[in-house]
Hints:
B: alpha+beta, 4-stranded antiparallel beta sheet, 16 helices, D: alpha/beta, 13 helices, 36% helix, globular, ATP-binding (chain E), nucleotide-binding (chain E), ATP binding (chain E), transport (chain E), ABC_transporter-like_CS (chain E)
Amino acid sequence: MKQYTIRRILQLIPVLLGISILIFAVMKMIPGDVISGILGVEATPELRAQLAAKYGLDRPYIVQYLDWIGGVLRGDFGESIRTAEPILPQILTRFQVTAELTILAAVISWFVAIPLGILAAVKRNSMADRLIRVFALLGVSVPGFALSILLILFLSLAFGYFSPLGYVGFFEDPLRNLQIMILPASILGISISGSVMRMTRSSVLEVLRQDFVRTVRAKGASERVAIFKHVLRSALIPIVTLVGMQIGSLLGGAVIVEQIFSLPGLGQMTLTGINQRDYPVVQGCVLFIAFVYVLVNVVTDLLYAYIDPRISYD
Amino acid sequence: GCGGGNTPPASSAPSAPVSTTPVEGGILKYGTDSEPTGFDPHTVSEEASLRIINQLYETLVATNADMTYYGQLAESWEIPDDVTYIFYLRKGVKFHSGREMTADDVVYSFDRVLGKTEAGDIGALGSKDSYYGGIESVEAVDDYTVKFTLKEPNAAFLGNLTSNYGAIVDKDVIAENGDLMRADGGTGPFMLGEWLPDNYVELPKFEEYWEADRVKLGGITYYLIGDEAARLAALRTGEINIANLSSTNVTAAEKESNLSVLGYQTNDYIAMGCNLSTPALQDQNVRQAMSYALDRQTLINVVFNGQAQVSTMMPPAMGHWSLGADSFDLYQFNLDKAKELMEAAGYSDSNHLSLKLAAGLMDSLRQAAVVIQQQLSEIYIDVEITNLESGEYVDIWGKMSTPEAGFDLMVVSDGAGTDPNRAISFFFGTGSSANVFGFSNERVDELCALGIATTDEAKREEYYNEAQEICVEDSTKICIASPMKYFVSSTSVQGFAPSAADASDFRDTYLTQ
Amino acid sequence: MKRLGQTIRDLWKDPMGRIGMIGILLVILVAIFAPLAAPFEPDKMVAMPKSAPSADYWFGTDNYGRDIFSRILYGARVSLEVGIIAVGIGAVAGYILGLLAGYFEGWVDRVIMCVMDILFAFPSILLAIFISAVLGRGLVNTMIAIGIVNIPVFARTVRAAVISAKGLEYVSNARSVGVRTGAILVRHISPNVVAPFTVQATLALSSAILTEASMSFLGLGIQPPDPSWGSMLSEARTFMEQAPWMAIFPALFIIVTILLFNILGDSLRDVLDPKLKT
Amino acid sequence: MDHLLEMRNLSIDLYRGRRTPPVKLVEGIDLNIDKKQNFGIVGESGCGKSITCSSIMGLLSFPLSVGAGSSIRFQRENGTDTELLSLPKKQMQQLRGKEISMIFQEPMTALDPMYTIEDQIVESLRFHTDLSRSAMREAALEMLRKVKIPRAEEILKEYPHHLSGGMLQRVMIAIALINNPRLLIADEPTTALDVTIQAQILDLMNELRESYDTSVIMITHDLGVIAETCEQVAVFYAGQVVEQASVDDIFHHTAHPYTSGLLRSVTSLGGEQKELYTIRGTVPTAGQFSSGCRFADRCEHCTARCREAVPPLTEVAPGHQCRCWLHASGAEKEAAR
Amino acid sequence: MSQENILLDVQHLKTYFPIRGGVMRKAVGHVHAVEDVSFQIREQETFGLVGESGCGKSTTGRSILRLIEPTGGQVLFDGTDLCTLSREQLRLKRRDMQLIFQDPYASLNPRMTVHKLLEEPLLTHFHLSPKEREEQIQWIAQAVGITAEHLERYPHQFSGGQRQRIAIARALICKPRFVVADEPVSALDVSIQSQILNLLMGLQQDLKLSYLFISHDLNVVRHISNRVGVMYLGRLVETGSTEDVYRNPLHPYTKALLSAIPKRDPSEEKERIHLEGDVPSPADPPSGCAFHDRCPHCMGICKEQPPQTRELEPGHRVACHLYNP
Ligand SMILES: Nc1ncnc2c1ncn2[C@@H]1O[C@H](COP(=O)(O)OP(=O)(O)OP(=O)(O)O)[C@@H](O)[C@H]1O
Ligand SMILES: Nc1ncnc2c1ncn2[C@@H]1O[C@H](COP(=O)(O)OP(=O)(O)OP(=O)(O)O)[C@@H](O)[C@H]1O
Ligand SMILES: [Mg+2]
Ligand SMILES: [Mg+2]
């Protein structure tokens, strides 16, 4: 298990290196640059050159890349060109918001989707099953941004409610923090719960067909025990896989929700970085998001072993 | 000249007869549409940041709603000759650090802008030349007196001083922080408080402000709410109490009893510029045809919900400086003439001209582009629109006089400023940095030189009128409309009167219960 | 071909599958015949801006005074085009890469899958933003961007299917008979990939339409005045109150179309999955 | 009731949608199982052995259901005679694993891979007793020793995938017997096992049955297993019982052509002749049965009557029933006309 | 044993599967699935391979055909060492040697008609005109008892026995000389098994085939084989003519195996040798004789030294310390 963990982490290296090269190259290829952004309208070529030299943007790309990635390996993501602030601490603060959003969304979606998915599977072909399936389909079909705006509008007009402004960290004021996060997290949660629901349903159906369920019933187990103790545990593996993959789409989906709800998360930071062509910021953010994502995948894999004793990875 | 020693006029608050008393120390919650980049008044120029910078910093002189000047940090000034300006500073003005502002700080601030401090060039500020390039020297005569000597007479000098680049800053703060992007070295009525990027900026009241009694707000908090519909929703629920809205949503806000709408004519205008490196656009007939073909009123109806005025490069808000669009035939919609000109240039139903038009993500530019495309299609021009995201937009903007840009036309939004010199020479002077479309006309350059060298208003008007006529005739930059801007606020917000000259003065603003 | 016919027949038997097929056929017909069916030209200003739905303008007009109904019809073309071409790019590239990776294992597999992991771990919306920023805006580039984002999903699906197919007895059988590698891939392995692949394709189609909408929301999608449902919806958000119809109709069409693709995908999965056959 | 279990006219329907009528997978099954009896059911794959037994446990699930007019009566521990098919769900759950237990064909898949052996044995105690956790553990350990599992203490902590098929089948037996049931249904318990392991398991079952006083229904398709373990045998063919008798009668006084064919093809295996005896043709599939005798197509003695009417199950000798026109009484033949 | 009519000569065949582990996924051990197996098959002979599940029967069969790459040893087929052939040479050689799989449900591509299934080997190995191909197909279909109307059907439309006929037809259509039949009847019902066995024996006569017949059913092996080999944990513990092995089993394992066959008749009396425990894991076989921990006759030497294979009677070989000279 330990060896497997080490191996999985070693395998991340080429992937992360690849991502770092990709994002670096992409940032260089994007038209527009940070200098025009800073100097704005009236920049002279000399001024531009001067500034480029200041940020080391005049060096060969390979040198710039090595310099950057070398720093990253030492835990130094560099400084924002626009604000001259070190990037990593900023990413970490921003990540708290995105992580909270993602986790809340995931939890909301599980609380809704997994029980409903089970219900649909157990009562296969019933009216409840059909309703749940339609609901799941709707969940995956509504664009998140439309849902967000619609909800904002609806809640403000009908209930005079607006998601509170002024982000507060969870540890500063949990209650207020939750008030702020609940709406965006629910919207994200709804957008993924459709697929979780479908996966739960099909996974539970699959397990229900397996022999051991019959044994459990033959032992005299009640339906509740059979489903929640035995079926669910086996059904969990594909669900966990899906959820692991969804963390990725949540991190991405958060970009839009963060933008609409003005949450100071990593997605916003990346978008602002892109708009300002603040290379180190964008590179740092993307690399970090990718890192979190692959890490989540490793954790998912390790979770399998926790859920399923057959998987031991040795 | 402009008489000195004016005290600021008592603000003419909108007449909503709300009888309730001010809430002592209320916090104004402002919904802002985009994230400020930073607060260094000498380098930053984008609107979201300026809104805040204007609360933090002050300049020697400032502009009244009627475009006259009053002393802000300077109590008064005199102009002994055409090239000498002596400012008598207000005594007892404190920086937010608590230190008193003196003449040295003024000298330092201008040294910084002009790149003469020990730290050298502050790295940004391409604007220094156009604003303060004419300054020969800035000297502290005594602690409260500063003398500016100009290289040559400059009628726009006072006007230039009112820009944020003329802000007086605290050198200690700069020494400590390197720059002012995230630090506060101002003297303004509000101080920089907590800034949570991409979320909010808090500006608490500066208790030692030199006019502290006048300021009734306890502070302003700027919340970022990027989406306009969301801003309106937040206004409705009282989550914020003031925000900028586009004219479209103002209609909705007007229907709400607890919201009031404050509109003012800006001196910004949108225009379409021609890339003169495109051969087809070197033909003046084509450019003029496009000017004729634009039905500006329709565009205003569509894009600005009717809330804008047809404008030349001197928007109507500039008052007597503006000749008004009515006086130009080229700004009257005339399809026949446009077609005639196009045909003269060799285009016809079977020979269309294809042009690439760059637009930004800003709603008004994006929408204007669509209308322009539609209208130009009537005169054998096929326009292909690309909406550029802001980083690219700025990049391409700088290249619009070369084929490198990859675009033939661009929709821009420009601020004409308060002085005709900026409106003309900044955007049309040969080689001027904002003259991105590569316009060049000797007579215009000459007129600008004349206009700046004299302080005789009548003369200046004459010069600039002529320049304006030439620019319109040339049609390299086809101006379209100058919009109204709107603040929507809760009715509890009182004592706020935005104008083109200053749309962010909250010193007299207060909240009622 | 026989199998295709059989699959369609099976789909038809499933009520959901039938709804999906008929619905999508309708959308396709709408897309094809948009020029005939649309009462107005989609990018002409034909009436007062923001007129409410009426007998003349069924879905009302937008802020430019263009007929929303006509634009929706034309928008079907764009949305389908985006979906189909984007998924096509992702599917073809993903299919080839997945097949190679799955069949040859070893370093070919490792290299391909590492590249796929890289693409996959890259936040997809950001990747699409970057790609379209590099390539420039416009319909084709949007499609390429969404297509590239789709490659890893397809490659993984195909690879997994190939690997599991390789373990099948009849593939060993073919090898033992002496059938050539190419023929094994084509005749014995590929058909197994078809089912998960098609299901993936319908799901990817719906997500491509969604991604296009999201990209339009961020200003990166198709460029004006061409109508796409996504860009119409994102344009409408400022006018949500004055002209709700500007948002309602494109949203409705997006949701229904994606719904249809999902329904079809679900049903296809059931039809093609032998485990569910009793 | 003198029997432990009486199955009368059991039929099982396969639902095929609202518009198509259900298929009868098995039909007209009558079986009597006595106390402490070893009852064997043989038949080819798919002839309905497993579903017949599952219906006793009430374990049929959609799309299968017990047909109208069926009855399964069971004599419970407390002496009451219960109709299992109409027993409420709760009571059925109490009965399952307590009074009737079941062992399945594939030990590898019959245990939940996610829980330890201990969990799974203890669970079946927990459903039916209120013993303390440690007492249940003790009982589980003792049971494992009874089924001759070496290293029983360690095995308790292991997961199913650690054990071999033979071990797992022992665990299954332990689970089935731990509540001392009155009836044990063993659905091909040794088919998936090797001969040496099969021998171990069959011996074990014989031994345990002695000490537990349980009746056993042994399902198999291997006549050898029947010969080793059973007293009474029912031969299934295509969803029907075609012959029912004591083991001895089945092997030595075979009445039905199918049974004798089966026996001959098995015995000819070891025989001198190179050419094996075969029953020609294949088993018909459910839903496609002919209107006559279902074995008619493969039968050497097939007559016209065989194709027209289903032969009744007739007593050919005391305690020996057979479903064949060859053995039908004159009256029955008359009735068929 | 005379040399000239030996078709297949397997010498010291070994097949190991790596067990991977550690950070770099290096092989940290091996499953010794086939360990030093040697035997010969003569022309038109059936060699039966029996043993319990997991003892390496299938792996032996597949290693001989190089469907699994053997780790060591030689496989001489008609004089050529199969292990030295290139991929393409081997592929062409497959015409002469075929495999029949255990599971007729899984070993036929469900998406191909019977006709296509039978055509494929012909297309692979011969350049025939369509007419000639058709003749071949008709011939083999008739030989295995599939009617012409069945040719256009798909495998799932057949019963298990019929499918196995199709599988056999597919294996034999190229007229191979040697066929590995890997448990060809284990998945079938008793009443169908004999049909298939008869068919296999008949075809052997007609086509002059040699079989390696793998099964765990001792009765079946006895019936069909001329000679048998008994495998235990990857090793061949006893080989000999069917007569010899069944009448006079030498190895204790063979004896136990034979005694475990259920009686055919309730009245039959049978002495049973009980084997304790399970087959050990081939990844970690016991030292010395692999059978020693289950052997009723285990001696000290059995735990230390692997026994040599000895020919006790002509053609009857056994690997057991009991028969040490
Ligand atoms: N869930 C089900 N759905 C549909 N048909 C079923 C189902 N379960 C069983 N059948 C059918 O019922 C018939 C009898 O099945 P059953 O499992 O009882 O056979 P069996 O005699 O136990 O065979 P085997 O020896 O293969 O276990 C078969 O034709 C089978 O296809
Ligand atoms: N691809 C493989 N990788 C690793 N181990 C394998 C592989 N194939 C087979 N083995 C192992 O090799 C041993 C021999 O397997 P093989 O399939 O040859 O046995 P068998 O005698 O045919 O058994 P059965 O009667 O169950 O078919 C087993 O322990 C098996 O687990
Ligand atoms: Mg069964
Ligand atoms: Mg095998």
